[in-house]
Structures are given as structure tokens and as C-alpha cells.
Write a structure and sequence with these properties.
flat; single chain; 2 domains; about 5% strand; mainly alpha
């Protein structure tokens, strides 16, 4: 069975290489934050290991955030402090430490490169300038193309994925 085109949908993340560098370090920091909390108790906790989970959520927020949107959302010191407190409290209420460990640890051997040639559907991959984990200056998106694909990286003056506009990209 061949994969079918996704019908107008595109991948949010489409890394085409083994997780390494900053991406791996951030993931390892999440794992170590939770496992380093004495309240984690090797996964046999009665209550969430709050200190370790909070540290892991801080890292996750940095991995997945857009500086431009945060500045718009919280343009003052007090608003930024309130934003962080609200984000952490809501995420703590919805996150299980062992589930987060499983999700982040599962990626340690991620390497899709051996099977990339099997993909026949067109792929549109956008590497935005505000990608904290795999920023465009690493050149990973374009360098690893193994077949015709459209890879886009923001061109000035649009610095982030939050302001995608026609003509704001250079296509390679």
C-alpha cells in the first residue's frame, strides 16, 4: 500500500533525521528533570512529582513556543509572570509525569531516514525562524531532501511562523 496525499493537510513537524543536538539535549533535560525529583519514586508516585514535572514543563514550553506570540500575550513583567503561572498550573493539572517520560524517551532512537525513499506523497515542510529546537540556520530541512519536495524557510522581514504570508518564503 502506498501512502496517499493528505488532502490539504501538512505535517507540523517533519524531521527527517535522527534526534540529536539541541533537540536531543532538550528532550534529555525533560527526562532528567522528572527522574531527578525524589517524589518521582522511580515512577511509583502517589502524587505527581511537582518539582520535576514543573521543570520539564518549563523546558517543553520553550521547545514549543513562539517568542513573538508570548510578547503579544504578555507584554509586561506582571503579565508575563501571570502567564507563566497560569500555563504551569493548567499544564500540571493535565500532565502525568510517567506519560511525559514515555513520550520523550520513545524518541531517543527516532531515525526516519532509512525509509524516506518509500514516501511517494508530496511533502510541504516549513521550518519557521522561531523554531527553537531545529532552527533554519542548521539547514536540516533542505539538506536532507531525498526527493523532490517543497521546503520553506522564512525570509526577512517575517521572522516567525506566526506571520506566514505569501511571498514571505524562499522555496528551495
Amino acid at each position: 500500500m502506498k501512502p496517499r496525499p493528505p488532502g490539504g493537510k501538512g505535517p507540523k513537524h517533519s524531521g527527517r533525521l535522527k534526534i540529536a543536538g539541541r533537540n536531543r539535549v532538550l528532550r534529555r533535560m525533560v527526562l532528567d528533570s522528572i527522574r531527578g525529583d525524589p517524589e518521582w519514586k522511580n515512577g511509583d508516585y502517589q502524587a505527581q512529582p511537582r518539582q520535576g514535572l514543573t521543570a520539564a514543563l518549563h523546558i517543553l514550553m520553550l521547545m514549543t513556543s513562539s517568542p513573538l506570540q508570548w510578547q503579544k500575550t504578555a507584554p509586561t513583567r506582571d503579565q508575563a509572570d501571570a502567564f507563566l503561572a497560569e500555563q504551569i498550573e493548567s499544564r500540571l493539572a493535565a500532565t502525568d509525569a510517567n506519560d511525559m517520560l514515555y513520550a520523550f524517551d520513545a524518541s531517543r532512537e527516532y531515525d526516519p531516514s532509512p525509509g524516506l525513499e518509500k514516501i511517494t506523497a508530496p511533502v510541504l515542510a516549513i521550518n519557521s525562524a522561531d523554531d527553537e529546537v531545529n532552527p533554519p540556520e542548521l539547514g536540516l530541512m533542505v539538506r536532507l531532501a531525498t526527493r523532490p519536495a517543497y521546503a520553506a524557510e522564512p525570509a526577512p522581514p517575517w521572522p516567525s511562523a506566526s506571520c506566514l504570508r505569501p511571498g514571505g518564503f524562499r522555496y528551495q
